[in-house]
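Aim 2 progress update. The chain analyzed this quarter is reproduced below.
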Amino acid sequence: MGTCLKKLAATLVSMFRISNTVVGALNVLSLLLGIAAVGSSAYIHVRGGSDCQKVLQVPLLVGGIFVVLVSALGIVGSLCRVNGALYAYLLVTFMVIVGLAFFTVFALFVTNRKVGQRVSGKGYGEYRVADFSHWLQRYVVNNKNWDEVKSCLMDAHVCQNLALNGGRNNDSLIFKHFSTTQAGCCKPPVYCGFIMKNATFWEVPKKGPAANNNTDCSTWNNSKEKLCYDCNSCKGGVLANIRNQWRRLTVFNACVLVLVTAIYALGCYAIKNNRSDSHCNHRKPPIP
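Predicted structure tokens:
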């Protein structure tokens, strides 16, 4: 019985020591990621870039610095056995866990509506801004943010090469692989009744648009710089794409939440290990 207890105690001590190494190794990796984020922000600042890329400059810088500082606390606390740094690291990690949990629940809340009218015989849906949560409407497609979103769409050339899989007179093939953003921004809505001449050129019927009271029909412009970027359907398509991306992000966040919680638990073991080593060092008799 005594032998079993000794083996168990040895196993626990070994696990505590491994926890320090694991926490340290994971924080070294996150430190490198943080440095890469700061470097990317600096590259955008020095070399310049599109308006869409410049939007990422500040988030990359702030996020990178935060990750570097937190990772440094984890490395000092776990590998250098400094409990003060490790306590600070665990406090920040706990706040990150709470933040990830809150964001996961929030993302599920704002993306829970099933919307989008499937266009018969086409293979893509058309969306309206009113189909989505008020938060997405208020903070994503307001007048201030929409100019930046529109700039990103143009920089990404979302409305180019739309006819790769089809011909001039076969619209079903041309639109077969349309994304929600392309369906809303690169063509007039189907209910306008416009006549397609090629992938991005549409002709208004002689009788006028089928839906005269819809502003999207009058907003459409065959110019490549305008198209339907200011249409309600384009904003709806972007929101649909954001909703789909956030749903994937929710799954990713759940995985990250499990990982960060595991790191938090390992950090607690590392603190116990540091205390144990400190206690043993104090009990060692002085060397004569």
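Strands lie at 117-118, 125-126, 195-198, 201-203. The two ends are 37 Å apart (CA to CA). These observations will guide the mutagenesis experiments scheduled for the next reporting period.
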